[in-house]
């Protein structure tokens, strides 16, 4: 790790016109005043700014404010009451320094020069002095934030694992999915201010690889007007270019479930000599696995970074291989080989101390064998997905005066994706069309899919502070999507069936205006309005005006609360299969955007022992609601509508962290009920109805995630426990009359509740200079609790992964 120091300057700026910064002795007339603090973080030796450095402000052991610097090393803390504070700043590869400081007219600049990490003579506990928890709560906003330095999961983990484990109200779901607040995976990533439209699922890394994330902020409610699109959650990601000169990181891992393949280890068993698994008794893996019965899992990762003057760059690439890629709807494991490849690049260019440019580029490709029919234990279908994203962001600080701050953001992005699904020759046709284009609706077909799309867009935002107590922000977002749909089918004699071969095009446009008005010392109003417009194939122009209002109660420096109302408009992906539904199915109604009324109340509290609490309650009425369904036994999905869905939830979150200790942890708990009413329309679904009310297939009442991380200087131990009361078991008819109360579990229509415990541990061996070597071990599902995660409903069934052990070796230069 780097052995440098941080130089931090704090500038105490004026709160109001004619009002000076406060001093240690505060007269009674000034006690109600607050000030804004501007912080600049730079390298003490190279004198270059440090972006994404974390800074926290504390008093009496309670966190008052926290945040990270931008690329030019600047950060604002606003509405800080006069007093003496402890400030702590840290960044990967630098020593952390904490000090008690007064901020007044005599201390407008404060410098912190930090001890080099390799200086062991002074006994500095590096990790213990700087670590926050993997998941923490921002007392002022109620948002949760994520720190990658204390996030320890197997290298096989997906981005959806990170979300599920660190976001309150998130429920575990089948492969490549996570349900947030009763919503089916409709969330949006933001990278350097750029939205990443969701595309084709199926890749281990989707569009974002968790290994390249430095930290993230999760917004699940209180949405400002600037956010639109798919927004069960907004996931604001920050990917960093390491400071200093050349860095190289390389790692490799290997893991296995060590299953028995129907026989004792090293005994003959009933395997076939080669090829996929067969229908022979006891054979679940096929001849490719061999007598060791070890399901192969391995991967490699390489990243480099450097700075050339004002230009910083970071490149990473990873490869993953597994013999168990997609969950199968049976408790036994099956051999389904797969590969994932992921490339990522980031560039930062500092134009001046007031503006900079940053760019992100990535590409991912996944090759997967899909188990088609587990009754005869074959894995012959093939699926290939591609995902890529490019973004260029420009930030400029037009005015840096405290009460006149003015900023401009302009960004452009492009998004590409594709899905190729090919069933195996031995797959039995089993999908039936309810179509006006086929004479025999009882005939069964195999389905083929070859879909690709390209999205380009721009986003801009301008904000201006007119006074200490009032600011406004306006902006637009526009994206256009084009692509081609090649969907086809074959009967048992390989004769062609219904098909769609056509291009498609569409667009999304949004414009917003919002303001933040500090009405009194104890309260503020965030008011905004947003206009959304959605154009998609086979759908008339869709649009909506969305007012948003958030009333904040600034009780004191340790307590805050807000109430919120927002009208939401969530368009579906333009590359969805609506045109297929229109042309080959009796379900002639297209899939429409989701429209919702969303209400929320939130309270946050900071304790003096490093503990933070968030309690939230929310209600959302969607009319219509958007869900998606899997077509037959394929990996092809299509969106559809439920006429009306009501979602109610209560959440409680706790996070513990203290920069002075190596122990951190968090608890996310929620009880959420999502129930649907009325007709199901759109997609491939035949006409049906939820009637008087049915629990959605992603309705899981109770969800808990508890994480404890102990991370002294050179090693870590991490324990994580996950509990769920169960998703749909696929038999909604098991409940004669659905009770609609939040605590009416309707358990007969849900899977059995479960507990899963995971473990991770690692040690850092320091070599010459900044070089180190780090082995780590991960064990998931320690007690090997095999259970049904979700039964077959609108999507396929999925079982829990058995106990898995993964060993990883990492090297840093």
Q: Could you explain the architecture of this structure?
A:
It is a single chain. This protein is mainly beta. It has three helices and 44 strands. Residues about 1-30, about 120-130, about 200-205 and about 270-275 have low confidence and may be disordered.
Radius of gyration: 27 Å
Apparent shape: globular
Please report the total strand number as a whole number: 44
Look at the structure and give the mean pLDDT: 78
Unreliable sequence segments: 1-32, 118-131, 200-205, 268-277
Major sheet attributes: 22 strands, antiparallel, barrel
Q: How many H/I helical runs?
A: 3
Rounded to the nearest angstrom, the distance between the terminal CA atoms is 8 Å
Oligomeric state of the chains in view: single chain
Helix content: under 10%
Structural class: mainly beta
Strand content: over 45%
Task: Give descriptors for this structure.
22-stranded antiparallel beta barrel; mainly beta; 813 residues; single chain; 3 helices; 51% strand; disordered N terminus; six-stranded mixed sheet
Task: Give a brief rundown of this model.
The protein is mainly beta and 813 residues long. The longest helix is centred in the N-terminal third of the chain and has 8 residues, at 159-166.
Secondary structure layout plus pairing:
Blueprint: E1 6-13, E2 35-43, E3 54-59, E4 62-68, E5 74-80, E6 84-90, E7 97-102, H1 126-130, E8 135-137, E9 144-147, H2 159-166, E10 170-172, E11 178-180, E12 183-184, E13 188-191, E14 194-196, E15 215-219, E16 234-238, E17 247-256, E18 297-308, E19 311-322, E20 338-350, E21 355-370, E22 381-399, E23 406-422, E24 446-467, E25 470-490, E26 500-520, E27 523-536, E28 539-556, E29 559-570, H3 578-584, E30 594-606, E31 611-622, E32 625-630, E33 637-656, E34 663-681, E35 688-689, E36 694-695, E37 702-710, E38 715-724, E39 754-763, E40 765-766, E41 772-780, E42 788-790, E43 798-799, E44 804-812
Parallel strand pairs: 13-16
Antiparallel strand pairs: 1-2, 2-5, 3-4, 3-6, 6-7, 8-9, 9-15, 10-11, 11-12, 13-14, 15-16, 17-18, 17-44, 18-19, 19-20, 20-21, 21-22, 22-23, 23-24, 24-25, 25-26, 26-27, 27-28, 28-29, 29-30, 30-31, 31-33, 32-33, 33-34, 34-35, 34-36, 34-37, 37-38, 38-39, 39-41, 40-41, 41-44, 42-43
């Amino acid at each position: 790790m780097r052995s440098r120091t941080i130089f931090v300057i704090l500038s105490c700026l004026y709160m109001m016109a004619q009002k000076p910064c406060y001093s240690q002795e505060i007269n009674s007339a000034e006690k109600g005043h607050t000030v804004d603090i501007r912080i600049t973080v730079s390298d003490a030796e190279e004198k270059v700014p440090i972006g994404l450095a974390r800074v926290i402000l504390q008093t009496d052991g309670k966190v008052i404010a926290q945040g990270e610097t931008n690329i030019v090393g600047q950060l604002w803390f606003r509405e800080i009451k006069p007093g003496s504070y402890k400030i702590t700043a840290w960044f990967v590869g630098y020593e952390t320094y904490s000090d008690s400081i007064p901020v007044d007219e005599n201390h407008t600049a404060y410098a912190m020069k930090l001890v080099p990490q390799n200086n062991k003579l002074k006994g500095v506990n590096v990790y213990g002095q700087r670590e926050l928890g993997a998941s923490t709560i921002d007392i002022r906003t109620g948002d949760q934030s994520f720190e990658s330095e204390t996030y320890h999961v197997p290298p096989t983990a997906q981005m959806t694992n990170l979300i599920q484990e660190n976001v309150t109200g998130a429920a575990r779901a089948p492969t490549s999915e996570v349900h947030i607040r009763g919503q089916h995976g409709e969330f949006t990533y933001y990278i350097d201010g750029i939205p990443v439209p969701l595309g084709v699922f199926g890749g281990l890394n989707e569009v974002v690889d968790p290994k390249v994330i430095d930290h993230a902020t999760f917004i699940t409610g209180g949405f400002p007007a600037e956010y639109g699109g798919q927004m069960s959650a907004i996931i604001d990601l920050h990917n960093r270019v390491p400071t200093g000169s050349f860095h190289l990181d390389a790692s490799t891992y290997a893991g296995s479930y060590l299953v028995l393949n129907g026989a004792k280890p090293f005994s003959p068993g009933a395997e076939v000599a080669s090829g996929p698994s067969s229908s022979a008794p006891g054979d679940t893996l096929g001849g490719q696995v061999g007598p060791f019965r070890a399901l192969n899992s391995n991967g490699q990762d390489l990243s480099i970074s450097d700075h050339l003057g004002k230009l910083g760059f970071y490149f990473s690439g990873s490869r993953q291989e597994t013999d168990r890629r997609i969950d199968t709807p049976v408790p036994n494991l099956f051999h389904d080989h797969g590969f994932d490849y992921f490339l990522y690049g980031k560039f930062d260019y500092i134009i001046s101390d007031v503006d900079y440019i940053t760019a992100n580029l990535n590409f991912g490709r996944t090759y997967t064998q899909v188990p088609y029919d587990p009754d005869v234990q074959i894995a012959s279908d093939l699926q290939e997905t591609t995902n890529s994203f490019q973004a260029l962001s420009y930030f400029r600080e037009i005015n840096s005066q405290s009460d006149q701050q003015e900023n401009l953001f302009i960004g452009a992005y492009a998004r590409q994706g594709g899905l190729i699904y090919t069933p195996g020759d031995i797959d039995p046709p089993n999908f039936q069309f309810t179509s006006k284009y086929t004479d025999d609706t009882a005939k069964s077909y195999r389905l083929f899919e070859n879909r690709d799309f390209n999205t380009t867009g721009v986003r801009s935002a301008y904000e201006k502070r007119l006074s200490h107590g009032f600011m406004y922000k306006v902006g637009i977002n526009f994206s256009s999507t084009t692509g081609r749909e090649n969907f086809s089918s074959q009967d048992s004699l390989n004769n062609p069936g219904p098909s769609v071969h056509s291009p498609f095009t569409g667009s999304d446009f949004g414009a917003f205006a919002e303001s933040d008005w500090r009405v009194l010392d104890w309260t503020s109003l965030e008011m905004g309005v947003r206009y959304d417009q959605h154009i998609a194939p086979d759908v008339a122009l869709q649009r909506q005006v969305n007012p948003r209002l958030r009333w904040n109660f600034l009780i004191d420096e340790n307590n805050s609360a807000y109430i919120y109302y927002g009208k939401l408009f969530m368009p579906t992906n333009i590359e969805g299969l609506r045109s297929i539904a229109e042309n080959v199915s009796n379900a002639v109604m297209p899939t429409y955007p989701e429209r919702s009324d969303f209400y929320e109340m939130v309270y946050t509290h900071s304790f003096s022992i490093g503990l933070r609490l968030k309690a939230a309650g929310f209600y959302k009425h969607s009319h219509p609601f958007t869900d998606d369904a899997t077509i037959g036994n394929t990996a092809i999905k299509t969106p559809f509508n439920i006429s009306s869905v009501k979602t109610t939830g209560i959440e409680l979150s706790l996070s513990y962290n203290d920069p002075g200790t190596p122990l951190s942890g968090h608890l996310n708990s929620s009880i959420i009920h999502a129930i649907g009413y009325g007709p199901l329309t759109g997609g491939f679904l035949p006409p049906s109805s939820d009637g008087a009310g049915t629990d959605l297939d992603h309705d899981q009442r109770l969800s808990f995630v508890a994480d404890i991380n102990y991370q002294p200087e050179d090693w870590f131990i991490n324990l994580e426990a996950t509990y769920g009361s169960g998703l749909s078991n696929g038999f909604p008819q098991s409940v004669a009359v659905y009770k609609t109360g939040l605590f009416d579990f309707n358990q007969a229509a849900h899977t059995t509740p479960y507990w899963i415990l995971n473990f991770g541990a690692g040690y850092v061996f320091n070599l010459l200079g900044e070089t180190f070597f780090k082995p780590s071990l991960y064990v998931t599902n320690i007690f090997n609790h095999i259970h049904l995660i979700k039964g077959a409903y609108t999507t396929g069934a999925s079982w829990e992964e058995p106990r898995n052990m993964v060993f990883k070796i990492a090297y840093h230069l």
